[in-house]
Each structure stands twice: as structure tokens, then as C-alpha cells.
Amino acid sequence: MRIDLHTHSTASDGTDTPAELVRNAAAAGLDVVALTDHDTVGGHAEAIAALPEGLTLVTGAELSCRTEGVGLHMLAYLFDPDEPELARERELVRDDRVPRAQGMVAKLRELGVPITWEQVARIAGEGAVGRPHVATALVELGVVPDVSAAFTPDWLANGGRAYVEKHELDPFEAVRLVKAAGGVTVFAHPLAVTRGEVVPEDTIARLAAAGLDGIEVDHMDHDEPTRARLRGLAADLGLLATGSSDYHGSRKTCRLGDFTTDPEIYGEITRRATGAFPVPGTGGTSGR
């Protein structure tokens, strides 16, 4: 089985619609794909309606968190999307995305970049606006060569010249909320130092003690020594070790299935989940 547990659609900052994403996942030879848009479950219904036969969908979200001044992302799988406490927190994060993006636009204009809010809103479309949309605008304007180049201290990296904070969950609270909603939690790309500051390993240990289920080990932003280090840490802490592409369509260079999760780990995730269940494809046609 080929299992990719971290992808994004136009419901947040990907470039594939949810329907396109599941069709592309099937075409890439995946057996299981998780749709984990940022702080939203808005793409799930379309993905389920379009799900090709032979592909299983894991519903999820990537939650924006912050602890000790460091931003991090928590992948949440197979939770009850209607559980009110977690739904309320996701809404608070989403509601803060527009003023945050507008603040980044204002900072960039102060730095002499001729960016406009209208441009960023056009790029975001119906998706939950975020830094990748602002980064895409910088690419369009020729300020940076690609989206990754926008995530530097000069521009949009954490603490960068145009960075603006937003409402984010405490990761310990995120673990509690997801567990209460019947879901499973995996710390996304925990040592992706190219993205900015990361939390120390003792914080990962405390999250494990608080109920964290796993850490994302095999990821494009982890080099081989980092993956080995994380695999050892997962073993020491009794955490599940996952692998995923973090696919964003054409916005990033990673491809569906670039990194995958072991079927035994996937089986354990599904065994632990009680809030929702993987959806098997039956040959959906939505969006064709």
C-alpha cells in the first residue's frame, strides 16, 4: 500500500481542488490519501464525492499552533468535525487569517513591494488565506523566484520583516481537543529548521506524555540525519512515525507520494480513531 497522510487543496493553500486532488492521488498510484487543509474541513465533502474507486480518503486538518514563541503545525486525523469545542477553535484561527494576511500586505508595502490585498485575495480564491498566498503574490511580482524563497527572514518567515502573528492553538490544548473529538494527532515536520525556529525535543517528549500519537518523520524538509534522529526519538517516546508529501499542487515542488507512511502505522492510526473513519472510494464523479 502507498499511503500519503499530508496534502492540501484549494480549501486552504493548495492549487488542486479537493476533487482534483483525489483524482491526482489515484493517478499517482496512492491507495490512501489524507486531506489535511489548514484549520478547515471545508474540502472534505467535495473530496468524498469525487473519490475514485480504489482510493481511500482519510479526513483531517493541519492545525496552527504556537508554544514558547515557536509556531508549529499539528496534523489531526479522523476526528468528529462537528465536535463543538474543536470546531470553535478552528473557526477562531480561520477568522484571524484575513486580518493577518492584510497586515502582511501592509508591511510589504512599507518595504516598497507593490503588492495589494486584491491580488492576494484573488490568489486565495475560496481558500483559507495564508502566507503561501502572499508568497505567491511576491512570485508574481518578481520579488522572489519561488514560494520557498519568500519564507526567509527578509520576507515571511517566522519573525521576518513582513511576518504577522495570528491566533494559534496551544499544541497541548490541540492534542486534548482532537482526542476529545475522537481523533489522532501527529506533529507535522517537527524539525524543519529551514522554516524557522523549531521546538526542542523535550517539548516533543512533553507532548507525547500529554497524548500526542506521532511525529511526521519522512518529509521533504527533513534531511536524512534528521529523519534518523526523529525515528529514534519516536521509538524512545513510543510515538508513531509517519511519512507524507505535504503536497500543495503547483505551489510547491513536492509530488503526491514523495514520502509515504508504513501500512502498519496507518493501521494503528485508524484503530485509535473513534471520531470518523476512512472513506473508501466508490468511483466518484463530482467535478469531472
Overview of the molecule:
By secondary structure, the protein is α/β, with parallel strands linked by helices. Helix content is 37%, strand content 15%. Strands 1, 2, 3, 4, 5, 6, 7 and 8 form an eight-stranded mixed β-sheet that branches. The chain is globular, with a radius of gyration of 18 Å. The two termini are 26 Å apart. The mean pLDDT is 94.
Give the biggest sheet: 8 strands, mixed
> How many β-strand runs?
8
Class inferred from helices and paired strands: alpha/beta
Query: Which of globular, elongated, flat, extended, rod-shaped describes the shape?
Result: globular
Give the distance, in angstroms, between the N- and C-terminal Cα atoms: 26 Å
* Averaged pLDDT: 94
Give structural attributes.
globular; alpha/beta; 288 residues; 8 strands; eight-stranded mixed beta sheet; 37% helix
Secondary structure elements and pairings:
Elements: E1 3-7, H1 18-27, E2 32-35, H2 44-49, E3 56-67, E4 70-77, H3 84-95, H4 97-110, H5 117-124, H6 131-140, H7 147-150, H8 171-180, E5 184-187, H9 201-209, E6 214-218, H10 224-237, E7 240-243, H11 263-272, E8 279-280
Parallel strand pairs: 1-2, 2-3, 5-6, 6-7
Antiparallel strand pairs: 3-4, 3-8, 4-5
Helix pairs in contact: 5-6
